[in-house]
Design a protein that fits this description.
Blueprint (H helix, E strand, L loop, with lengths): L3 E7 L10 E2 L8 E2 L10 E5 L14 E3 L19 E5 L3 E5 L6 E6 L5 E5 L30 E8 L5 E4 L6 H8 L17 E7 L2 E7 L15 H4 L7 E7 L5 H15 L7 E7 L4 H15 L6 E2 L8 H14 L24 E5 L2 E5 L1 H8 L6 H11 L2 H9 L7 E4 L2 E4 L1
Parallel strand pairs: 1-5, 4-6, 11-13, 11-14, 14-15, 15-16, 18-19
Antiparallel strand pairs: 1-10, 2-3, 4-9, 7-8, 7-10, 12-13, 17-18, 19-20
Length: about 425
């Protein structure tokens, strides 16, 4: 099971506005009629109950939403780009990778939950928006805004009611196979299970989902052994079956070590209800220790259960007890981020700034840069109209504060002129 992937997503670019003029036979008045560009498609991640793995994202790392169409004459709006919907398993946590660390965007804990991870760019304005009493034939139009581009982490946390935890080779796979119809790999060596396994336990009219968490060792919270790649799957469980090897030299120490790893990975795991179970009572040496083990654990306030996953002895009684405990525990609350992304305040979009760079005064303004990018500044009339627009009071004052003098070069995007 591939349960964590990093992908790159790119929303669709906005369409460009266009420069066109109305010219119709027998129509006395013309004028600018360039339409606006359409909006680029968004990238959306959606929880789909029909999908159980992130394997689809393993071989492909770049996902692009559709870009929008450009505006057309007669003020026709460009076609909007189609959004791209990425379907993921229920229980997937969506994070955005950033320089200051990963940021949670949403926890898709229910079927149908979705989050927009990249927003499509807006369309540019056509020349019909730039008409004025002093400029009745505007040849200016805006370029579309590029769509957002992000690195996204998809992290699957299996949604199971009960998790089986314990050291490697204590019989977790055997217990899962004995209690459910699951068919995990079983062998007599450590780390047989390389991925979490799920099964459904049916107890009369009731049922619950049982998950085997691959073996934990000391230092698992730091990534040792199979590490925290699988510890995350224990987070959503409501009850933990802590399975111990009855033939171990010290089952008490084993239990303490595993619980320490759980609490170091996530403190909430140490507060989950646990049923402590000793396995392998089909072995004569373990059966002889049952009374001793029961007394030892009782001294620290723990009531032991005993099973043989190999023969099935005690398994049904254990599952009945688990079901009884589940019925007493309220279902988990829907995570706050389930359907709504975490809102992060963003700084204001940069307005107007002037910087002297490489012998020229460089103007930085998203609005003006889009205007330059969307207009054919090789046309003398376009250059004249751009020059008139860039000498407006607000920009002129900014240039004067930056220390510009007559004859200095001014640059914005690819457009240059002399002050």
């Amino acid at each position: 099971m591939l349960d964590k992937v990093t992908i790159k997503v790119k929303a669709g670019d906005g369409g460009h506005g266009v420069v066109t003029f109305r010219r119709e036979k027998f129509v006395p008045y013309g004028g600018p009629d360039g339409g606006d560009g359409g909006k680029g498609g968004d990238v959306i991640v959606k929880a789909d109950p029909c999908i159980t793995t992130l394997a689809f994202f393993h071989n492909r790392k770049l996902y692009l939403a559709e870009s929008a169409g450009h505006g057309e004459r007669k003020r026709k709006h460009g076609r909007n780009g189609a959004s791209l919907v990425l379907n993921v398993p229920v229980g997937t946590v969506v994070l955005e990778r950033g320089e200051e660390g990963d940021m949670v965007l949403a926890d898709l804990a229910r079927p149908g939950d979705e989050v927009m991870v990249a927003k499509g760019g807006g369309g540019g304005l056509g020349n019909s928006h730039f008409a004025s009493p002093t400029n009745q034939t505007p040849r200016l139009a805006e370029a579309g805004i590029p769509g957002e581009e992000k690195d996204i982490i998809l992290e699957l946390k299996l949604i199971a009611d009960v998790g089986i935890i314990g050291y490697p080779n204590v019989g977790k796979s055997s217990l899962l196979a004995a209690a459910t119809a699951a068919n995990p790999r079983i062998a007599d060596y450590a780390f047989t299970t390389l991925e979490p396994m799920l099964g459904v336990v049916e107890a009369g009219p009731d049922r619950f989902v049982l998950c085997e968490i691959p073996g934990l060792i000391e230092g698992a919270h730091l990534g040792r052994g199979l590490g925290h790649d699988f510890l995350r799957h224990a987070v959503r469980t409501r009850v933990l079956i802590h399975l111990l090897d009855g033939s171990s030299a010290s089952p008490v120490d084993d239990m303490i070590a595993v619980n320490n790893e759980l609490s170091l990975f996530d403190a909430s795991l140490s507060r989950k209800s646990q049923i402590v179970v000793v396995n392998k009572i089909d072995r004569p040496d373990v059966r002889e220790r049952m009374a001793e083990l029961k007394k030892t654990f009782k001294s620290v306030g723990i009531m032991l259960r005993f099973v043989s996953a190999a023969t099935g002895e005690g398994v049904k009684e254990l599952m009945d007890e688990v079901l009884s405990l589940l019925q007493k525990i309220p279902p988990p609350k829907t995570p706050r981020e389930a359907a709504v992304p975490v809102l992060r305040p963003r700084g204001k979009e940069p307005g107007l700034s002037v910087e002297e760079l490489d012998g020229a005064f460089v103007i930085r303004s998203p609005e003006l840069e889009r205007l330059v990018a969307g207009s054919d500044f090789r046309d003398p009339e376009v250059r004249r109209q751009l020059g008139n627009r860039f000498t407006r009071p607000r920009l002129r004052h900014a240039l004067e504060r930056a220390g510009i003098k007559p004859g200095d070069k001014i640059r914005i995007g690819e457009f240059e002129w002399i002050w």
